[in-house]
Amino acid sequence: MKINKFVIGGLLILGAVVFLIWTSTAATSEYFLTIDELKAKGSEVTGRNLRVSGAVIGDTIQYDPQTLTLTFEVAHVPGDQALIADEGGLAEALHQAVLDPTRSRLKIVYVGPKPDLLRHEAQAIVTGKLGEDGIFYADELLLKCPTKYEEAVPEQAASN
Description:
Layout: H1 2-28, E1 31-34, H2 35-41, E2 50-64, E3 69-75, H3 81-86, H4 90-99, E4 105-111, E5 123-130, E6 136-144, H5 146-159
Parallel strand pairs: 1-2, 4-6
Antiparallel strand pairs: 2-3, 2-5, 3-4, 5-6
């Protein structure tokens, strides 16, 4: 009889631990989507934690230093590395994305200091939520400028 109590108690504790892990993982999970995928899912992903990547369209950048509100648009860049390689690498894929008016675009709103790397054709990776209004409200903003790093690689390789 004592063994049954320990087995039942152990199973209850194990069940509680599994439940806590599952609920905390579900609450903090993020979906990484391209702009086309985000547009296709529509209201299904509204209000969820998301991570989206795109090419910054330079002439849409607006910054209000009083409220620290930054708004800009990003154009769709393929999420598949093979497609990016087919376009000639990341820098060329970003360039083509910005030039092509038929690609999906997404308006981003971010509150915080304006990053130095925010410029035309930079890759923006934003974490936040899609609002009911179709605007992406970013909590976190990461920018990559691929041309800056591509030029530095040969010098680094030559010094080794």
